[in-house]
Design brief:
alpha/beta, 7 strands, globular, tRNA_(Gua-N-7)_MeTrfase_Trmb, S-adenosyl-L-methionine, transferase, tRNA processing
Length: 230
């Protein structure tokens, strides 16, 4: 399937693979449970109802880390399906282990570049929600080009949302928060949920992770953003 966004090819990645050390449980979970929860790169566009075995709203999380937020929402919202993408295998393994223990059935994961998944695996207007929490801010000026939230990405993400679909973001890096606002407010397919075109209150669904708590101890404010596909 092709569309106006598909030809975009991203040369600079927004992440660096830092594999880290995998525990025995994480590696075992990848071996045992990847066939149940994992999605390999498809030959074409994914048929999400076929992937999940039903037609339901789909929430897509980019960079789920250790998977706490994704699993909590999947378990508490069984009427929705959840698709998470993370490049770091220890986090994927931990999520698979916990998802199996919880008997979670409405969760799928990919270990791949999320931009490639959005661009090549998913069809336009196929997602009900996209969640991006604490993406790497790449604080050094020479690295700003590596930031995930750029105009081309904003257009791509908006195109994959259904009309009325929600894009939710959070960051604890103030300069990146301002950059996000500038980029996303300029995308015509997105409407800022904040009446003043700024930040929104913390959504009830967003867990306070260990990462966020550490940032708060260091005095970092957290900035939430929310946009609707028009």
């Amino acid at each position: 399937m092709t569309d106006a966004v598909s030809p975009v090819r991203r040369q600079v990645r927004s992440f660096v693979r830092r594999e880290g050390r995998m525990t025995v449980a994480q590696r075992r979970a990848l071996d045992l449970f990847w066939p149940r929860y994992g999605i390999e790169p498809p030959a074409g566009v994914l048929d999400l109802p076929a992937v999940f075995g039903r037609c339901a709203p789909v929430v897509f999380e980019i960079g789920f880390g250790m998977g706490d937020y994704l699993l909590a929402r999947a378990c508490s919202e069984p009427e929705r399906d959840f698709f998470g993408v993370e490049v770091h295998r220890p986090g994927v393994g931990r999520l698979l282990h916990r998802a199996h223990e919880a008997g979670c059935r409405n969760l799928r994961v990919a270990c791949c570049d999320a931009v490639e998944v959005l661009r090549d695996w998913l069809s336009p207007a196929s997602l009900d929600e996209i969640v991006i929490q604490f993406p790497d801010p790449w604080p050094k000026k020479r690295h700003h080009k590596r930031r995930l939230i750029q105009p081309a990405f904003a257009k791509l993400a908006a195109s994959r949302l259904k009309p009325g679909g929600l894009l939710q973001l959070a960051t604890d890096w103030a300069p990146y928060a301002v950059h996000m606002l500038e980029v996303l407010n300029a995308e015509p397919m997105l409407r800022n949920e904040a009446a003043d075109g700024g930040f929104v209150p913390r959504p009830a669904t967003r867990l306070r992770t260990k990462f966020e708590q550490r940032g708060e101890r260091l005095g970092h404010a957290v900035f939430d953003l929310a946009y609707r596909r028009v």
